[in-house]
User: What shape does this take?
Amino acid sequence: MRKKPDTRIKPSEITPEGAFLNRRALLKAAVAAGLVPGIMSASEAATIPAGGEFDPKPTKWPGSVTDKPNSLEDISTYNNYYEFGAAKGDPAANAHTLKTKPWSIQVSGEAAKTGTFTLEDILAPHALEERVYRLRCVEAWSMVIPWVGFPLADLLKRFEPTSQAKFVQFLTLADRNQMPGIRYPILEWPYREGLTIEEATHPLTLVVVGVYGKVLPNQNGAPIRIVVPWKYGFKSAKSIVRIHFTDKRPLTSWNMSAPQEYGFYSNVNPKVDHPRWSQASERKLGGGLLAGRAPTLMFNGYADQVASLYTGLDLAKNF
Ligand SMILES: Nc1nc2c(c(=O)[nH]1)N[C@H]1C(S)=C(S)[C@@H](COP(=O)(O)O)O[C@H]1N2
Ligand SMILES: [Mo]
Assistant: This one.
């Protein structure tokens, strides 16, 4: 049996318990912290609901893909979350030890407003949407997922990034006591990822807190993760604890472990193969975990929206 999760909390992580239940108190605190414009109405305040279901229901985003979403069962039992083990079923089996409350995010680097913010302060001013996106793993399988979240751009601008903020790095939780996979040096811990500021603030890039109208299962990156739909799945960091604005291209865990296989950009691209397998097609998971193969689309089908971010860039070199 595993050891009990570490229950020690840093003073910076302490949030009054009532804040989870009382949106007005939560908003007052967020306004005091200078994070919320005073005009916010309580109904717009996003919170992680104690009961697990978002209420009111997140509004449906009109730009969602029309493909049939995978079942919650598929989405929450076939995962990559190496902190909980390297096999696809490991995160579902092990992630119950992840302690998602209280949670806070450190904001650092090239921004006017840095410091440690509680998850409640992070979420308070945002209205949640449901967006159905394709997810394409670098391992050449894909799913369709109805995420609950809001644009990352709306969060980042609250920290007032400086003109030197050319990139954003995301660092995720790395706690041996909660995460059995951390003892294996498969990757550089904490798991870290990065985006250019243009990618991070693109309207498709999301902060995600739920799936299928419910709070994120731990194995999907609770309580808060990033989703970048035109990039291979590993760019979408789970359970983030730090956002760092920087003028230099940040280190990313997969690139550190195998730079010839995983580049910084990692845009879904059927024309650039992984050195060990083709990226021209993908295995669509679903119902029994095998719904057939499909050709992989440039930028995972989001080319119209994102191709302009890369004009003039040689995508074979900048893979
Ligand atoms: N912290 C962390 N984030 C992570 C990973 C991980 O191992 N650790 N795996 C990535 C990979 S490879 C993929 S495909 C997606 C999977 O997201 P899902 O399990 O919610 O479908 O999460 C990404 N984010
Ligand atoms: Mo992945």
